[in-house]
Amino acid sequence: MKFFSEQTNNSILIFGFNTFRNLPNKIHLNKQNRAFYILSKDKIHPNKFIDNQFNSISDLKEFLATYNGKKDIYLCGGKFVYENFINYANEVYLTTVNNKLLNQTEDLVKLDLNNLLKDFKTNELIYKDKDIQIYQYKK
């Protein structure tokens, strides 16, 4: 969590609505210096945690094309966001979590990482402890 907080400071974070809705409360409460942008076809009631909403794929693509390279933008999931917008990323931080940390009732999202990361040429393990590993992929 510390790495995520430090890395995303002064940045825009883009989430699909379901992913955003399921975030731990401490991420919402520690929002300082971050803008939360949500992709959802349904209208979301404005609240103090959501700074902007994209109602369509084309709206988000236009935003990414306009601001890519001008502002730090993080695609934070879920699966739909990763599969449709990973090509806009210059870097990927992939976190793997020890199975013992996962709630047994959680539905795990399955991603085809080989396909998603095929355009990224290098990767490096940048953090490891007994519970998680973080890899950085670059184009």
Automatic annotation (TrEMBL):
Q: Matching Gene3D superfamilies, A to Z?
A: Dihydrofolate Reductase, subunit A
List GO molecular-function terms, semicolon-separated: dihydrofolate reductase activity
| Pfam families, A to Z | DHFR_1
Show the SUPFAM superfamilies listed in the entry: Dihydrofolate reductase-like
Q: Name one GO biological process term.
A: tetrahydrofolate biosynthetic process
Domain called DHFR: residue spans = 1-139
Name-wise, this protein is Dihydrofolate reductase
